[in-house]
């Protein structure tokens, strides 16, 4: 880095026309310590400063590490002020063309107070400006910039923690410990290279809002980077004696010089006349509220109040009654040439404009009891048109309650309830705002339906009457009470009533059709005769079965059937039609009574011809296996005789050889 900066320095010397002194700060070592404090830093006839001292590097050349700087005509933020450095201030003016790296091997010590303030043990090359002062006001402040060669734009990872230290140490006479005023605003963190650094290097950024820039060559100072203008400030007690010690030092070794620039005339004594009353701070004045501000100071000879930098006619008392928003300043005079100031900024809470205070929801659960869940966060965002972002709105069930409602709130009074919105973090400027919660219901009972779509027969879906609107999930959406469909599917209609509440009704439409009876599987000549109705696999419907056309069952099996003729009815449950078919159950008589009365005089098997079994052979035997009679399926049967003789009442046996290959054996009774 030294080689690069020296090369650039030679080039800039050759091209000096382009970079004249007007672009860079100037330094002056001729000011006395008293002049630096009274005429440069404070620059006010109000200054009551004494015991001023400065110490720094004891260079053999007689050069100094402190003095005056002039930034007039440059881009440097300060026009002039004091510079305190860990090296020669003659190396501080720009351009940023070489490494300022002074103070080695000359016995230049650090500072124990700085070590205590920053927790160090190895400071070197300390430059110190200190003095006593008696403040007029109750607050002091001054502006400064911290610059350092250690702000490297391309550091190695090992250089990220190198940092010089400085502190602005203040204590009241008699106090034992100093307070460090050189801290990051709102914190107690000291300002250093590794606590204020911008992004763009391998070193992590820190509090980047307070970092100004990494400098290129063309900069008014010969430092690699600097902070923004920062303000050191503290409360003080007017009339008390304070000691301030401004100190900067290298940490670890003498390498890579740093400097503090103190803004000329920035050391101010001001009066704290109260906190700003701002909307952003949550403490504005309420509409119509006045605020009396008191700036009374011992020894003051006169006062003048200003609003927005305009003198207020007649406002020459120590107190002033503020009645409108603005930036207020009071000038406090101590004789003809000494003056301090106090400032306060006043804002008024807005008159809140209600955008909507009635919120309506539908009861969405099944019991329709007029209670539902409200999102109070949503209501909060819709309640006012001009609610500042930092205001907090909470809701309460009654105006006197102190327990805020949860964000998800279920009303406790059915159908209509008033709750209260309370604007928090404002000085009691607002009364509670009533908010009306309205809950509408949808009382109609909606039942889903399942329907069949018969072949080649479109079906009409009817959502019912009495609703204000209908929206079907068709493409495009249809909005009529009825729609006609010709395809199976799930059809959903959203029904909206007069209260603008909605429910949905679902129509499940399945393809269906009239049945085709493919076979009737009969199992007869049994103790439990059955018939199983077999439907063609091409039939689409869901079917039910009946033997009388009135009473239907889901099962396709009929049991415990007596011998005889039956008609089975197969009905599509979706209404696509009914088919029927006749079948016969065969069985043998368990007895017969051949007494000539014309009733049950012969034993025979009915309806064999109806099953195409008329050619079956039936053989009758006595109990000893003697063949008594052989008849066909269409004969008149056996009359209970053998060779013309009446056989006695008894059990007789038979075998039926059916033409379908089935054989049935059993016995029956002849009764005389």
From TrEMBL:
Entry protein name: Gliding motility-associated-like protein
Entry-linked NCBIfam families: Bac_Flav_CTERM, choice_anch_L
Highest taxon in the source lineage: Bacteria
